[in-house]
Design goal:
The structure holds two protein chains of two kinds. Chain A is mainly α. In chain A, 83% of the residues lie in helices and 0% in strands. Chain A has one domain. Chain B is an alpha/beta fold. Chain B has two domains: 2-214, P-loop containing nucleotide triphosphate hydrolases (Rossmann fold), CATH 3.40.50; 224-264. Chain B has eleven helices and 13 strands. Chain B has helices at 44-51, 74-77, 95-106, 112-119, 135-147, 165-180, 192-198, 216-222, 244-247, 249-255, 269-277, and strands spanning 4-15, 18-29, 33-37, 59-64, 67-68, 80-83, 153-157, 184-188, 201-206, 209-214, 227-232, 237-241, 259-264. In chain B, the strands form three sheets. Chain B has a six-stranded mixed β-sheet with strand order 6-7-8-3-9-10, with helices on both faces. In chain B, strand 11 (227-232) and strand 12 form a beta hairpin. In chain B, helix 3 (95-106) crosses helix 4 (112-119) and helix 3 (95-106) runs parallel beside helix 5. Classes of the chains: A mainly alpha, B alpha/beta.
Chain lengths: 257, 281
């Protein structure tokens, strides 16, 4: 147990330090924050809010504010999970495979479980930290912060599990670039839900769809137990599916590597 | 030297239809530097992979640290160090940070790291990022990472590949130190001179099986040719057999004042290797 924790600690410290020096990973973190700033101050305050007040028929300014906040928070949530939990993991693992550092660690008596746990944990913390910064930028009331981070955490876990499998399946960073596209698109799909009800009806089944729907209900103040059942079920199904996929593929992929 | 620290008995390995190892049998004694030699593609790296659980064998028995490989525990592998042909360090971290990572993973703390880097000629470059290091520096840093926990059994897959002669000599000294403190080293190399210098025993792998296994000097004697070369004052160099009739000519040459030098025509390890494998490296 002590050896396990010691190894886990060393791996987490290594992954965190390496992340801080990796320009690709820094970009992964900055992108959601940058978009949050852009949406809040340029599209939100100046554009979208004005158009909603003028032509959207939303008279009450609190209603307008909540729509803007939902858009900024929804986009930040999906982008933070997409970039922090997905892209950073897939590229990170693929780089370790390409440069043989993963194998070298395993030859130093580090188990695959320890490696995956450390990488998953760092990606999770990175995602939550990014979500927190995005939340601060969004201008939403801090009373919502706990909910937001909870939804961010719930949405991140299945994406992390799937990304670990996709990272292991990627031979090198070039294949990682290809494989990460569908994962990223699926993760970010709920952003497009605000375009139309038709799109929303589809994207709410995405891995982050449940968390995004719950976020919309919370920000608009219409969260009820009955309304929460469907998004919670979507999230639970993704969680279970991700665990199953991870368990099925992980051993085989590890052996292939 | 004492009982076997690792052994293979009738081990086989195939990749698809290709038989890589066939009936491979040998053992390594505790405390020796054991050279595992063979032409490219002979199965040297595959053998290390079998011993380090990166591959599964088709048949036969493997024993590691006194117990069957199947029953080797994580704790057993904490006593093992491995430098593989693909061992690599993190590019964006310094040499010292990389070796310290392995020290932490192995639970030995950082105290040994500066001394080890000094020993491998890396002390001045300890803070250099690995991405800025030469191939030789990377190889030495990877060796430091494999050695940081003072393993009882060390697998080294061509550890001096890419090193300059000075660095190579440092590694040879380090291997001598490891042997002096009782560690066992399983070494693969293409360099026959290196094998002669550092190994207590060598095994030569040919066609997936051990063609010969012994002390390098014994091997050379075993494959010595039945002839001696005699340098004379006026008759040049004469080649004589070791038969009594030919040997009897030596006193005659000496009495005639012709004898300058007598050389036994003993092969070096490389020639033994070529004779056994019939192949170039």
């Amino acid at each position: 147990m002590q050896a396990n924790l010691r190894k886990l600690g060393a791996l987490i410290a290594k992954d965190a330090a390496d992340l801080a020096k990796n320009p690709t990973m820094i970009l992964c973190v900055l992108m959601p924050v940058g978009f949050a700033v852009f949406y809040r101050f340029f599209i939100g305050d100046m554009g979208l809010a004005g158009s909603l007040r003028g032509d959207g028929g939303l008279g009450a300014s609190s209603q307008v504010t909540s729509v803007v906040q939902y858009i900024v928070l929804s986009m930040s949530l999906c982008l933070s999970i997409g970039m922090g939990a997905s892209v950073s993991l897939i590229y990170g693992l693929a780089e370790e495979k390409e440069k043989h550092t993963l194998r070298t660690l395993m030859l130093a008596n580090v188990s695959a479980e320890q490696l995956m746990l450390a990488k998953g944990f760092v990606a999770f913390v990175l995602t939550i930290a990014t979500e927190l910064v995005c939340f601060a930028v969004s201008g939403a009331p801090w009373s919502l912060a706990g909910w937001y981070l909870l939804l961010g955490s719930v949405g991140a876990v299945p994406v992390i599990l799937v990304s670990l499998v996709v990272g292991l399946a990627s031979r090198d960073q070039m294949t990682a670039g290809l494989y990460s596209v569908p994962v990223l698109l699926l993760t970010m799909a709920p952003i497009f839900g605000s375009f139309s009800e038709g799109i929303r009806a589809v994207v709410r089944f995405a891995p982050t769809g449940g968390a995004d729907e719950l976020l919309r209900l919370i920000v608009s103040g219409s969260l009820t137990p009955a309304a929460a059942v469907a998004p919670l079920a979507v999230t639970a199904v993704w969680m279970v599916a991700a665990v199953v996929v991870f368990k099925l593929l992980y051993r085989r992929l590890l052996r292939d590597n | 030297m004492s009982a076997a620290i690792l052994s293979m008995e009738a081990v086989g390995l195939s990749f698809g239809d290709k038989r890589v190892l066939d009936n491979l049998t040998f053992s390594v004694r505790r405390g020796e530097v054991f050279g595992f030699l063979g032409p490219s593609g002979a199965g040297k790296t595959s053998t290390i992979k079998l011993l380090t659980r990166q591959l599964s064998r088709d048949g036969g028995r493997i024993s590691l640290l006194g117990r069957p490989l199947e029953r080797a525990t994580e704790a057993d592998y904490e006593r093992v160090g491995i430098l593989s042909d693909t061992s690599a360090l993190y590019d964006r971290m310094s040499i010292a940070d990389n070796v310290e990572l392995y020290a932490r993973l192995r639970g030995v703390g950082r105290r040994r790291v500066p001394m080890l880097l000094q020993r491998l000629g890396l002390a001045e470059d300890a803070k250099t990022l690995v991405k800025h290091c030469s191939k030789g520096m990377r190889q030495r840093a990877a060796l430091a990472a494999a050695l940081v926990h003072e393993p009882e059994l060390l697998f080294l897959d061509e550890p001096t590949s890419g090193l300059d002669p000075a660095a190579r000599a440092e590694v040879h000294k380090l291997l001598a130190d490891l042997r002096a403190r009782g560690a066992t080293v399983f070494l693969t190399t293409h360099d026959m001179a290196e094998a002669e210098t550092v190994c207590d025993r060598v095994a030569i792998l040919a066609d997936g099986a051990i063609a010969a296994c012994d002390d390098p000097d014994e091997l050379k004697l075993r494959y010595a040719r039945n002839r001696i070369a005699v340098r004379t004052r006026t008759r040049g160099t004469l080649e004589l057999s070791k038969d009594p009739a030919d040997v009897a000519k030596l006193p005659e040459l000496a009495c005639a004042g012709e004898l300058l030098a007598v050389h036994s025509d003993e092969p070096n390890l490389e020639e033994v290797f070529l004779e056994l494998t019939g192949r170039e490296f």
